[in-house]
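$ run holo --ligand "beta-D-ribofuranose" --emit tokens
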Amino acid sequence: MSKVVWDMDPGIDDALALLLALKSPEIQILGISTVAGNAPVEMTSANARRVLEYMSVTNIPVAMGAAMPLNHPLVDALNHHGSDGLGQCGLPPPRLPLHPAKAWDFIAQLISDAPGEITLVATGPLTNIAYAFKLHPELPRLLARLVLMGGAYGLTPYGKENQTPFAEFNIWQDPEAANIVLNSGADIYAVGLDVSMNPAACLNSQHLEQLKSGHTPAACLAAQLAEYVIERQGHCELHDPLALALLLDASLFDFISVPVEVVTGNGWDRGITYVLPSDSYQLSTASSQLIHVAAAVDAPRFLELFLSRILRTLNNTSCHSEPCALCHSEREKRPKNLAQDRLREESRPFAIAQGGKETTSILEE
Ligand code: BDR
Ligand code: CA
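-- output --
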């Protein structure tokens, strides 16, 4: 059983990863923190809770974190994820309140309460984790490990870019935070575009049909989320579910342990993750540790794991007994314009939760 604290920016693939985790008894999520990335932080905070509540999970606290990267304005990815960040799936706004703590203190508390036991998962920009590590310098050593989705390491033909011609979104969004985290001394596993952009590890329209034929809440929502992306680009990358899958079956991946340097600032090369020669970490001041970087994935086995978990029925997550607007049977019966009606209903602005103070000066406090 992995005890997990998870920092995320849902986002379609974050939500798919969360569904995967909720269908995996090996994973115990102790808490979720949210960061600005794919969407503004109020929206990612709402989305995490929208998914949890849809899955009838009410005992995982969600704490909101940074509204902006450390040194840059936020550049969201709503063009890819839809105007609500979740492919306009029609989930209602959350009812559960946010946890009152700021994400970095929330993360620190959970890690300190179980020293050596926590796997910290990061599937968004690393802003909250950087704040947590700066404000609580003991944290990296208290972690079992940090598993992150981020970077493009040039280890496969796919490990190139998805935000600029050279950089991956999460690292590009906040390269200064990535630099802090990758040099923190934590035991870090990085799953990047080298594996997540492999077309064999993406959902295609056949996989979508499988999800649509499922009768679990997770399958219904996963189908809606994946369909939004597949309709637009023909396939759906599973960046964040891949990172989560490392906790379920590490044998899916090959890793190499290398020094990594992140390009900070705002030049053309912002957010590039360079793999340095393997002995350079002893010499270089820029990179002081080895990072375990995913260099290959067994894509068919990963997809089988993903689909079988999402489609399976567990005692605590069996299909809704009440008809659910997203569930397969209901969806088929649903008149076409109901989706539009739901969208209009849901397009009220998200409630901005408590504690909306700006976060940018916290490292100077
Ligand atoms: C990463 O960026 C985000 O858009 C996705 O959620 C994923 O975490 C992929 O580059
Ligand atoms: Ca993400």
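-- notes --
The longest strand covers residues 253-262.
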